[in-house]
Specification:
Structural class of chain B: mainly alpha
Largest sheet of chain B: none
Shape of chain B: globular
Oligomer: heterodimer
Number of domains of chain B: 1
Order of helices and strands of chain B: HHHHHHHHHHHH
Largest sheet of chain A: 6 strands, mixed
Radius of gyration of chain A: 19 Å
Number of strands of chain A: 9
Shape of chain A: globular
Distance between the termini of chain A: 45 Å
Helix content of chain B: over 70%
Number of helices of chain A: 10
Number of helices of chain B: 12
CATH architecture of chain A: 3-Layer(aba) Sandwich
Strand content of chain B: under 5%
């Protein structure tokens, strides 16, 4: 379903993704693990047509997302790592806008929106502006929105960041359910090893722009002779901390905070 | 079509919902209208040019539409930073539709602002030479709005941070306004200034507005409308191209 060959992305003289290759089969749940700045999000951005690869080949359901952008976009859904909601609209309007952009027919749109908002316990706040939501609620809405159209491939970029255990559980149960009943292929990244261990069929560990190991959770543990995925992860990536440069986006957010009421 | 409509509607909702911003954005044109309109009025009168308020009101309307439409395009910076832009960019609709929806939304908001300031001008004592001229003025307001909303989209696609925004404000939007003849007659200008004003798209918009509203033409209505139409097409193409190149 997803095939990546020798994928490279450079920003100036910094290489974020260094020649990675992997395959994800249809109906598989594939987890991408790695420390901060390993290149996970950059990879997802290339897979979802937001960034152009410097070199290498990508195939999504047989399509090349750098050329057949629109067709490729039709096939996947994504929950971003950082917020992507419209703060000035209500929860309902955010869902509706998403449904229109993804060509979900009006009736189906209303039905699914209601079902998802109820599932993520946002229904009684559906007419409140997103800017009045707490961090966890925004996150839940973001996830609900990503599930509104039923994509063949679902990208989840650290979806559980800032969620309480209840919501996390809810999310993964739902994702598993989608995977089992609709054969949705799932590509996820997370920092929580237990989540990857629980839901993912296969795992790839990325560090410094390279894939350092991939296989099932069991294989990774055997390979590193560790008794938990976390120990395997640390054995493969070392225990030093990583820095990420502050981007212009972070700086602008600061200014934005000053300007907003 | 659905995508264009929903994004257009979004711009409109944002406008209607931020009442504070509506008032704030009308403050500056009001200041120009009152301070300059009444302040320079006596001098203008003595120079034999008639009422300055009558003369500059179309210019102030043009200014309001200019500011409002450029800013709506640059508001894309916020959407980029708050992430909403990404949500539209990964959706299975062409970037062209997204760009058109946003730009038309911004232009519509600018037209509404223009109408509000026209009402304020009327309250301040401005009178068009003929009430039937309002539709013609409306046409020029729309043209100005589309030209600069498209320019705003182009700029919003190209710049990534607040420094860029300040640059655009100081070196593009203000010169566009001051060099457009919004505040002074275009006749008998020094050669250099006269040349520069002809390069400014807003010049043709303000001249069209002024012509329609108080029957004071420097160029012909047809010239004004066709120059604005062509520039609108050029800016829309530029905006569409730059928008299609956005990476986040």
């Amino acid at each position: 379903m997803i095939r990546v060959q020798n994928l490279v992305k450079t920003f100036g003289d910094f290489t974020a993704v260094k020649d990675i290759s992997f395959d994800v089969a249809q109906g598989e749940i594939f987890a991408f693990l790695g420390p901060n700045g390993a290149g996970k999000t950059t990879t997802i951005k290339m897979l979802t047509t937001l960034l152009r690869p410097t070199s290498g080949k990508i195939e999504l359901d047989g399509l090349d997302p750098t050329v057949q952008q629109k067709e490729a976009r039709q096939r996947f859904g994504i929950v971003f790592q950082d917020p992507s909601l419209d703060q000035e609209q209500t929860a309902w309007e955010n869902m509706d806008l998403h449904g229109v952009l993804y060509h979900v027919p009006r009736k189906v749109r209303a039905e699914r929106t209601e079902r998802l908002l109820k599932l993520f316990e946002l229904w009684d706040r559906k007419d409140s502006y997103v800017k009045t939501f707490s961090g966890g609620m925004k996150r839940r809405l973001e996830i609900a929105r990503g599930l509104l159209h039923t994509p063949r491939i679902l990208f989840l970029d650290e979806p559980t960041l800032g969620l309480d255990p209840q919501s996390r559980n809810l999310l993964w149960n739902h994702v598993k359910h989608m995977n089992e009943t609709e054969n949705t292929t799932v590509f996820l990244t997370t920092h929580y090893m237990d989540e990857a261990d629980k839901v993912a069929h296969r795992i790839a560990i990325m560090d410094h722009g390279k894939i350092v190991a991939q296989g099932t959770s069991l294989e990774l543990k055997e390979q590193t002779e560790s008794d938990s995925l976390e120990a395997a992860f640390l054995a493969l990536t070392g225990s030093s901390l990583r820095d990420e440069g502050a981007s212009s986006a972070d700086q602008l957010r600061q200014v934005a905070r000053m300007w907003r009421r | 079509m659905g995508a264009i409509y929903i994004l257009w509607l979004r711009e409109l909702k944002r406008y209607v919902r931020s009442k504070v911003q509506i008032v704030v954005s009308l403050g500056q044109p009001c200041l120009y209208l009152l301070a300059l309109g009444f302040g320079l009025g006596p001098v203008f009168q003595r120079a034999g040019q008639g009422s300055y308020l009558q003369f500059m009101a179309p210019g102030v309307i043009g200014m309001t539409v200019l500011f409002s439409s450029v800013f709506s395009g640059i508001a894309m910076l916020w959407d980029r930073q708050f992430g909403f832009l990404k949500e539209t960019l990964v959706a299975p609709v062409s970037r062209m539709q997204i760009m058109i929806g946003r730009t038309l939304g911004g232009a519509t908001v600018a037209v509404l602002q223009g109408i509000l300031i026209l009402v304020i001008c009327l309250i301040a004592g401005f009178r068009p030479h003929n009430w039937l001229a309002i539709p013609a003025a409306f046409l020029f307001v729309i043209l100005i709005a589309v030209v600069f909303a498209a320019l705003g989209t182009a700029i919003g696609s190209a710049i990534k941070d607040m420094q860029g925004f300040q640059l655009v404000m100081n070196f593009l939007v203000l010169p566009l306004f001051f060099l457009s003849g919004a505040l002074y007659p275009l006749a008998n200008l020094p050669v250099v200034l006269s040349f520069i004003t002809r390069l400014d798209p807003l010049t043709y918009g303000v001249d069209g507005l002024r012509g329609a509203l108080i029957n004071h033409w420097h160029f012909s209505p047809a010239l004004n409308a066709s120059v604005l139409g062509l520039i609108a097409l050029a800016f829309l193409s530029l905006g569409a191209y730059l928008f299609s190149k956005i990476e986040v």
